[in-house]
Each structure stands twice: as C-alpha cells, then as structure tokens.
Amino acid sequence: MSGLAGCAGELGGGEEEEDFPTQDIEMICPWAAGGGTDLTGRRLAELGQDPLGTSLYVTNQTGGSGSAGFNAIANAEADGYTVGITTVEICTISHLGIADVTPEDLDAVIQYNFDPATLTVPGDAPYSTLEEFVTYAEENPGEIRVSNSGTGAIWHLSAAGFAQEAGIELSHVGYDGGSPATQAVVSGEVEATAASAPEVAGQVQDGPLEILAVFGEERLDMFPEVPTLQESGYDFTMGAWRGLTVPQGTDEERISTLEEGFTSVYESEDFQSFMEEQGFGLVYRDAEEFGQFMESEYERFGGIIDELGLAQSG
C-alpha cells in the first residue's frame, strides 16, 4: 500500500495482522447506475486508488428503496473491504416499515455531500412557475404524478412534505434512483420529479425540463435564477446527503485508514472540481461527526414520517 499506515491489530495467538488494505475494495451503491450516488461513488473509487494503494470498484445493488444495498453493506464481512455509498434513506426506511436496517448496523467513515431537492417539470407543462404548479394541483388533485427514487426515499419525502406544506394532493411514483426518476419525466410517464439539481441538470440545460423551485435554504450556483421554496412563501427545506460507511463492527484502525484515504480524496482538487462541475454540494464530516449526524437524522426523519402519515405506506 502507499501513504497510509497499515493496520497493526493482532490475530489470535499474538500474530500481527498484515497491512490493510491488501485486497481490492468493493463499494456498494444502493442506487441505479447514472444517478448522483453512483456518479459520486465512482469518482471516489477512481480517486481513492492512489491514497489507499489498492483497486476500488463499484457494484450497484438496487431495490427496496435502497434497502437491498444497505442490507448488503450491513451483512458484508466487517473486514474493511466492503464500503457502502450510503444515503439519507438509511435513516428513513425502517421508519416506513420497508426494511429493518438502520444506522446502527453501519459504522461511519466520512460524509462528503448534501444536495437539496428540486421541483422539476417539462418545459411545455401547463405551469411555468411554482405558483402556477400549486394552482394547477389545487384544481386537479392527484393528477400530477411526481417521480422519486423509491418509496420512502428522500425525493419521495421531499415531494410529500412539500405537498403537505402547500396543501395540495400529488401522486408519487417510485423508481430505482434519481436517473430513472428524471427519465420518467422526459418520457412523459410522470409530470414532475423532486430529484436533485445534478440529477436533472443535463435535461434542464440541454433538454426539455425546467426547474420551478429548489428545496434548500439558498439558491444554487448552477441555477441561480431558480427561487427557493422559502422565497415563494413555503417554510420547507429538504435534501439528500451522501457518505461512506462500513459494516458495524469493522476494526477501528481499518476505519481510520479508510477515513484518512477518502478524506484526502475529498480535499483533492480533482474531486472538488468534479463535484462543483456536476453541481453536487460539498459537505464534509469525519467518522465521528458523521456517525453522530446519522443518529440525529434517524430521529429527525422518524418524526417527519410520522407527521406525514407515511409510516404505513411501505
């Protein structure tokens, strides 16, 4: 390996363990290829090979609103050779009754991202502003179908939360990630999506879609002309975050090695430029901070899901 300290743990009988890592590292993505989690995870894998001194490769294990991938991460051998590209849904799906996996089944490595939801529609839709969208939904309850990255996934909660805040009825349609959810709007399967700006950017800048509102506290550099919900009078914010985890019980020395390697990637000009060019938000938490953050998010989303009455929807 290069650069990082090896694991100095001991095996049974006092035999010292060999340096870590000495094998390829699998990075499990719970979402479909081409979406934001897949894209950022593959960039981390590519750039992580130098500081970690080994090959990293991404596998997409999708389904069940992320639960298939989260379970695959949690149930992998806790040896540091399986890293999960973990998203906010780890804090929601157990509250929804979709799966039992929670942040307690994982150990944190780092957080590297936060992105707010957007309300994105076809450019030729019968509404071109958020106000017109709400008016249309009020006059046609349930007619607007909004795609998301799976039942209980963050874009579902974002759209449902906004609908509750606006007092409108929307129909929610789940897909296996932000990319297929965006394509569903392009193909006309649905009338809107709540996916993030990076996931819809290509279809907005060079395609047929238009963003009506951003669900963050501030406008996005990528689309500075698009107002936030708060600017339009709705006191509601929600978005996705992404980080890296390993199965619960992984050796602390190995977690530290992974944390150090991926932190160096996060701080690199290559990764910073990639995230900014693609429109992904950069937010960093180290292993301890990310672990505490996941615990607080788990509690927060439990309350939100109860408030929205979604606990029985799974």
From TrEMBL:
Name of this chain's protein: Tripartite tricarboxylate transporter substrate binding protein
Protein species of origin: Halalkalicoccus jeotgali (strain DSM 18796 / CECT 7217 / JCM 14584 / KCTC 4019 / B3)
InterPro entries from the UniProt entry: BUG (IPR005064), Bug_dom1 (IPR042100)
SUPFAM superfamilies named among the record's database cross-references: Periplasmic binding protein-like II
Superkingdom of the source species: Archaea
